[in-house]
Amino acid sequence: MAKGALAVSLVCIVSLIGGFFVVANPLEHSDHDDDSDSGGTTPVIKDEELSIHFLELGNKYTGDSVYINYGEIDILIDAGSRTDSSTTIINYINDHIKDNKLEYVIATHAHQDHIAGFYSTGSSVGVLDNFEIGIVIDYPRSDATSATRTNYERTRDLRCTEHFTALQCYNNEGNAKRIYELGPGVTMEILYQRYYVEKASTENNYSVCLMIVQNGKQYLFTGDLEKAGEDSLADFYQNQPERNGLGHCVLYKGGHHGSSTSSNVKLLEAITPEYVIICTCAGSPEYTTNPLNQFPTQEFVNRIAVYTEKVYVTTLMVNYSGNVFQSMNGNVIFLVKDGEITIICSGDDKVLKDTEWFQNNRTAPAAWA
Q1: Is 277 within 8 Å of 312 (Cβ atoms)?
Q2: Is the Cβ–Cβ distance between 202 and 225 less than 8 Å?
Q3: What is the mean pLDDT of residues 98-117?
Q4: How confident is the model at residue 47 (pLDDT cuts 50, 70, 90)?
Q5: pLDDT number for residue 48
Q6: For 123, how many CA atoms within 13 A lie in the half-sphere containing its CB?
Q7: Within its chain, how far is the Cα of 27 from the centroid?
Q8: Which of 79, 196, 213, 357 gives 140 a disulfide partner, CB atoms 3.0 to 4.6 angstroms apart?
């Protein structure tokens, strides 16, 4: 059971989301300290706390959206998985935001499972149209020719007065910054990887990479970066004399939804992750019918198990053709106060290795046996 979690309160909810009947997982809430109360479905988070929220997206598709709050600073990394996810994302953020402004928005790369919720359609209001937007940071390169990319970039240019690419940020070009001060002891650093400037064989390797640093503790986000991009990221920082590597990361957003192409050996050796949280729909055949390659894959599990068993997954597929899915851990909040870490799950609080899905569909590595 995750640290600070209360006993399970079983509530069966049937809801209509995005036109599909969805069976939601039983809700479970954690009282993480005496000063913060879970408050039902929405925990109360104080200004001095840093919270990183890994969101479920209201439909059966895999995608990323991570909301970060620290005091008056609100950050959104990606808005997948489809355009109708914007309603789910907006409703979630509205429970936490104070001034209707996202100070920073990061769009990691031009795939719909990361950016489709940013723009409006005839049936849904996009994230960029709903909030006041501060600085937008996105991909320096893209080979995508999709309407998704076009719609996102058109909306970005209409709604945002400050837009920089990750490369401009890394180079401190103009008003762009490599390191943004979020508050006392907390920064957001835009990292460098070679495919900001070089052509990649996959759109995923154009992903923006960033590190949140809180009083020396590091939290890493790499979008959908795959092996070549991850190796580039690790190699670049290993060769920086003032850094001598990326260094231990207390939190790592599991790369590319827990795929076999990401979270590779070189990166994991460089960051030795302690907590891994994956935005994905476990066991979904969306991308492959091969069960071992469905997210999170057996290869991902084998590699990550060397470092940690503290792995959490947002969603579980029940019946893809029937549009039935449910929460695994649900919306997962990584909360830090006074140096203490608490994991708060809207669904079950079991780590991946202890879930029924894992025990039925994956082989436990020796480290998890």
Answers
A1: yes
A2: no
A3: 98
A4: confident
A5: 83
A6: 6
A7: 21
A8: 196
CA 72 to chain CA centroid, Å, is: 20
Q: Is the separation of the CB atoms in 28 and 326 below 8 Å? A: no
Q: What region, left, alpha or beta, does residue 263 occupy, with left being phi > 0 and alpha being psi -120 to 50 degrees?
A: left
In whole angstroms, what is the distance from residue 314 CA to residue 277 CA?
8
* β-pair type (73-77, 101-107): parallel
Stated pTM of the model: 0.89
- What type of residue is 311? V
Determine the Cα–Cα distance for residues 96 and 333; give it in Å rounded to an integer. 12
Backbone angles phi, psi at 184, to 5 degrees: -55, 115
User: Rounded distance, CA 212 to CA 12, Å?
Assistant: 36
- Which two tokens mark 369? 């046996």
Q: What was the pLDDT predicted at 312?
A: 98
Distance CA 182, CA 338 (A): 17
The SS3 assignment for 228 reads helix
Rounded to an integer, what distance in angstroms lies between the CA atom of residue 199 and that of residue 335?
37
Residue keyed to tokens 């943004």 = 180
CATH number of this structure's domain 47-368, picked from the four choices 3.30.1360.120, 3.40.50.720, 3.40.640.10, 3.60.15.10: 3.60.15.10
| Cα–Cα nearest to 52, from 214, 181, 193, 205 | 214
